[in-house]
C-alpha cells in the first residue's frame, strides 16, 4: 500500500519536465532546438515513456512544440508572447502581494526587510546585474509569504518563462530603471508592512506595468514580431 509520502514524491516525468524547464530558462537549451527522446532517456536513465510524457507537460506549459513527423522543439518566443506574460505576471503577482500583506508572518517580513536593505546597497553601488538577483529574491519571498503553494507553483513557472528571454535583465539595464524599480519596491513593501492588501496589490500591479512599458521598446529588436 502506498503511503502519503510516496504519493507526494515527484514522478520521473515531473523530474524530467522540471529539469528541462530549468535548462530552457537558463539558455542551456536554445529556442528552436530539437529535443531527442533517446538522448534524454539516456541522460536521465529512464525509458522513453517518461520523456514523452514530460514533452506533453512542457507543451501544455508553452515551453516546447510537438510537431508530427518532425519531433519536439523548444518554442520560440514572439513579442506578443512576452507582453502577454507580463499581463499574466501582473495578475499573479498582484494577488500574491495582496495575500502576502494579510498572511505573511513576521519572519517573512523580516526577510523582506533584509532583502530591501541589500537592494538599497546594490542601487547605491550601481550594480545592475546584482540588482536583478536581489529583485528576484524579493518577489520570490512575497510569493512564499502568501502561504498558497499553488500560487507559488504558478509564480515559479511564470518566472521560468520570463527568464527564457532574459527579460528582467533587459528591463534592469535601461537607463535609470534600477532607481525607478527600487522606489516602486519601497511603496510595495510599505504596504506589506502596513498589512494593507489593497495598497500592496495596487503597488505590485503598478510595478509590473512599469516594467512592461519599459520592456516594449527593447523587445522589438530582440524578438520576432
TrEMBL record:
Residues in HTH gntR-type domain copies: 10-77
Source taxon at top rank: Bacteria
Keywords attached to this entry: DNA-binding, Transcription, Transcription regulation
Gene3D superfamilies (alphabetical): GntR ligand-binding domain-like, Winged helix-like DNA-binding domain superfamily/Winged helix DNA-binding domain
GO MF: DNA binding; DNA-binding transcription factor activity
InterPro entries named in the record: GntR_C, TF_FadR/GntR_C, Tscrpt_reg_HTH_GntR, WH-like_DNA-bd_sf, WH_DNA-bd_sf
Pfam families named among the record's database cross-references: FCD, GntR
Entry protein name: GntR family transcriptional regulator
Organism: Nocardioides acrostichi
Phylogenetic placement of the source organism: Bacteria, Bacillati, Actinomycetota, Actinomycetes, Propionibacteriales
